Amino acid sequence: MSRFAEHPGGAGLDERLLACRLDPEDVYVAVQDYLDEDLSHERRDVTSESIFGPEHTSTVAVTARADGLLAGLPVAHAVFHAMPGDVDFTYLAKEGARIRAGQVLARVTGPTRSLLAAERTALNLLCRMCGVATHTRRFADVLADWHTTVLDTRKTTPGLRAFEKYAVRCGGGDNKRMGLYDVAMIKDNHKEAAGSISEAYAAVRAAEPEIDIQVEVETFEEALEAVAAGALFLLCDNMSPKELGEVVEAVGDRAELEATGTITLDTAVDYAATGVDYLSVGALTHSSPILDIGLDFEE
């Protein structure tokens, strides 16, 4: 049980976050930092405190201003529940669902001061996560007729990686790796410093016998060298669809193959048609526009 459960009405929040594969305690700590950024460590909204007394309550509607895909309501819920007072958060839409402009996604009732103080932090996170999910869904839809999955990368916003990667999952994509700690990836600089792909691979395997190892390759010859060294997962970097197709044919089922580079919605099918297993797209997290969502007071 995380510290969210200490707040009135927060007991069910842990379960919702766990269902999103988000650690409630990590979310709690992150939310505190985000709120400190906007309200200072003293947690002051001087405008709202001047206008409303501590007993004044309101109900607000979290409303979509544009069409898109929903991701992040439990995170927005966490922001409101980190504020003082009894806050009731009612979910009116499901994670991963398509949403329409004008649709009410949730209603929140609580002290007016708390609602206004949490508003921007909650919306910043929700708009960002919905934007990532919406952009990811566009790739997933383009690839729907192919046996190719779109993946994210480590090109995430500092402090938001877990949330952005969750949003990718909501959009129909998958997570490549969470960081440098859970999957080994031998990239160009590793190869150069070690002397060769084979030497780098052998060093990692000796040090980490159980960990998954991915090898970045830029040419047909490097792909064959990596497979010969024992690699079961190749990252084919900046190859054309023609070059990638040759690697797919030569490697066969000896290794899983992922294509990366400047892959766009317009070129995704060209790469998928080669038979590659995955496309990794950094733009899912570093270039997705936000989805406009607002907070409306209700009478």
TrEMBL record:
<dbReference type="InterPro" id="IPR002638">
    <property type="entry name" value="Quinolinate_PRibosylTrfase_C"/>
</dbReference>
<dbReference type="InterPro" id="IPR036068">
    <property type="entry name" value="Nicotinate_pribotase-like_C"/>
</dbReference>
<dbReference type="GO" id="GO:0034213">
    <property type="term" value="P:quinolinate catabolic process"/>
</dbReference>
<dbReference type="GO" id="GO:0009435">
    <property type="term" value="P:NAD+ biosynthetic process"/>
</dbReference>
<comment type="similarity">
    <text>Belongs to the NadC/ModD family.</text>
</comment>
<comment type="pathway">
    <text>Cofactor biosynthesis; NAD(+) biosynthesis; nicotinate D-ribonucleotide from quinolinate: step 1/1.</text>
</comment>
<dbReference type="InterPro" id="IPR037128">
    <property type="entry name" value="Quinolinate_PRibosylTase_N_sf"/>
</dbReference>
<dbReference type="InterPro" id="IPR004393">
    <property type="entry name" value="NadC"/>
</dbReference>
<dbReference type="InterPro" id="IPR022412">
    <property type="entry name" value="Quinolinate_PRibosylTrfase_N"/>
</dbReference>
<dbReference type="Pfam" id="PF01729">
    <property type="entry name" value="QRPTase_C"/>
</dbReference>
<dbReference type="GO" id="GO:0005737">
    <property type="term" value="C:cytoplasm"/>
</dbReference>
<dbReference type="Pfam" id="PF02749">
    <property type="entry name" value="QRPTase_N"/>
</dbReference>
<protein>
    <recommendedName>
        <fullName>Nicotinate-nucleotide pyrophosphorylase [carboxylating]</fullName>
        <ecNumber>2.4.2.19</ecNumber>
    </recommendedName>
</protein>
<feature type="domain" description="Quinolinate phosphoribosyl transferase N-terminal">
    <location>
        <begin position="45"/>
        <end position="130"/>
    </location>
</feature>
<keyword id="KW-0662">Pyridine nucleotide biosynthesis</keyword>
<dbReference type="InterPro" id="IPR027277">
    <property type="entry name" value="NadC/ModD"/>
</dbReference>
<feature type="domain" description="Quinolinate phosphoribosyl transferase C-terminal">
    <location>
        <begin position="132"/>
        <end position="296"/>
    </location>
</feature>
<comment type="function">
    <text>Involved in the catabolism of quinolinic acid (QA).</text>
</comment>
<keyword id="KW-0808">Transferase</keyword>
<dbReference type="InterPro" id="IPR013785">
    <property type="entry name" value="Aldolase_TIM"/>
</dbReference>
<keyword id="KW-0328">Glycosyltransferase</keyword>
<comment type="subunit">
    <text>Hexamer formed by 3 homodimers.</text>
</comment>
<dbReference type="GO" id="GO:0004514">
    <property type="term" value="F:nicotinate-nucleotide diphosphorylase (carboxylating) activity"/>
</dbReference>
